[in-house]
Amino acid sequence: MRVHRTDPIKNARQKMVFTQLKANGVTDKMLLNAFEKTPREYFIPITSLSLAYSDSPIYCDITGRYLFPPHILGIFLQHLSLKRNDKVLVVGGNYGYTATILFEIGCIAYIVEPHPILIAKCREKLKKQNIAIESGPLMAGMKENSPYKAIIIELGLISVPDSVVKQLEEGGKIATCIVDNDQGSTKACVFEKTGGMLHKIFSIETNMPMCPEFSETQAFIF
Hints:
By secondary structure, this protein is of the alpha/beta class. The chain contains 6 helices and 9 strands; from the N terminus they run ααββαβαβαββαβββ. The chain has a single domain, classed as Vaccinia Virus protein VP39 (Rossmann fold), CATH 3.40.50.
């Protein structure tokens, strides 16, 4: 008699897709397949493995940064309306999960990351993908490969740095989490660049913590 064994990690990943992505309006089949295919547990600190498929931000060790909750990343990517071979910049690559999802849907992903430990982690985990990883300040972006169809700033911040906005093509979109200290709230937002300025086109409440590296950013959002 053959016994069929279930894979608890695969089951957790499938449950994530159904209860966190589909339940929050993510319907793009290619995107859902990318999430189901990508082992999120491979892209987080070993100390957080038990949280790999929880719908919450996951702390990334030394940086004071967090990975987006799965449903937030899924919503972001659906609103960015990306196509194959679109160039996308990820500001703050963490362990490379977002860049891997982009790779799986056929985008050309770039990562800018200042921390040597995270750069090493990204290069180790992304060695099979053709993803450019550059060391440099987060707010500097990656000018040499601009303009980008989309930019994902993978952290919580007060406002979008103008230096990053300049690297977005006209009509392109930026996705990030904006922290309002006065209101004590954080919103996952998507902005579109029209007339050289950013305009908010989508926003929902989330619980993404502030990134210390961006806590003093003074650029404006329109």
